[in-house]
Amino acid sequence: MTGVKRLATGNKKAATIIAFLLIPLSGLITDIYIPSMPHMAQDLHQSQASIQLTLSLFLISYGLSQFITGSLIDSFGRFRLTLFSLAVFIISNLVIVSTHQIEWIYAMRVVQGITAGFIIVAKRAFFVDVYEGAERKHYLSLMSIVWSAAPVMAPFIGGYLQQFFNWQANFYMLAVYAAVMLVLEWVFAGETVPEYRPFRLSAMLRDYKIMLKDRMFVCGLLISGLCYGTTMVFGLSGAFIIEHEMQYSSVVAGYSALFMGLAWMAGGFIGKASLHKAFLPKIRLSNAIQIAVTVAMITSAFLLHNLYSLLFFAFFIHVCVGLIFNNYFAYCLGAFPQMAGLTSGLTGGSTYIITAVASYTVVGVLHPRSQEGIGYAYLVMGFLAFFILQFLLKRHLERR
């Protein structure tokens, strides 16, 4: 494609930093307004489920968009589509802060899911485009850890934005962040696609078929979605439990979500440090610990039920799923390097759809309002992952 600015060799480090700054964008979009959810419900005169739907709609649209964005960035490149998506994302945030109509907020959250899909898929593919071998494996694993910085910082920032301003301040913050990234991307980044692949629906479906025949890859998508969905269970219900049931402030809810983000990041660091360990045994061990801690969380609730006990058990559960996610998500992203964009799209898309459907369904059915309730939600997610790891993969390995 002529006339497209290519990434300059001298800007490789700067472009890598920009990519790492954009990777957490999806986490910022989901987590920064979590402490504001109860206040949004009051201000917009909506139910708890209606506000939770704003998060699920983003996750679903973000996931669905990646099924096509991966192929599009392989065909038309990463750079221009990233710039355009950032510009549209900025506008969508300004629309959200200017309306009190929940339908418009729903629509803009869908737009944000689509634009985030283009941005994040392009940046995941960037690392496969620019780096090779052990260096690529290092950056793909590091990428998951960097992404986990958003769940750490976003609710902490969002809690204070809600405390001193209002829920709209969260979306102003997202608009400003995206504007800064747009300028940096324009100045320092450039096109990195090694070879443009013609956009053909038949070819895309053929490539999807190749990937979906790989049982380890498919199980990885399911496991990654369930692990991230486990954290979303806390994201969907945690603020309502802490602020409504326990009568704490939005700042405390923000700090609590920050604590869960630290757990996810710790799991990511442990996962990266254990890359040299046998893959499936460490995944299965982490899942077993996850289930054991969840059972302890439920049984202890009859004797001990307060903010500290809730966060104590949830922390270790999030460490376990963070470890599993880091290892399996990195594996899926690097599984088919010859079609990095498409692989990134299918991996991210499937993960977020599974996350959205599983977490919203479990929370919607169980309506967790206590430590015991959120423990049962965690247990459902943990046993689903256990079934995949112990039965589906076992059958696959026996056939090899």
From TrEMBL:
GO terms for molecular function: sodium:proton antiporter activity. GO terms for cellular component: plasma membrane. Residues 15-400 form the Major facilitator superfamily (MFS) profile domain. It holds the Pfam family MFS_1. The keyword Transport applies. It comes from the Bacteria. The keyword Transmembrane applies. It is a multi-pass membrane protein. It is found in: Membrane. The chain crosses the membrane at residues 14-34, 49-69, 81-98, 104-127, 139-157, 169-189, 216-242, 248-271, 283-304, 310-330, 342-363, 375-393. GO terms for biological process: xenobiotic detoxification by transmembrane export across the plasma membrane. InterPro entries: MFS (IPR011701), MFS_dom (IPR020846), MFS_trans_sf (IPR036259). Keywords: Membrane, Transmembrane, Transmembrane helix, Transport. This is Multidrug transporter. The lineage of its organism: Bacteria, Pseudomonadati, Bacteroidota, Chitinophagia, Chitinophagales.
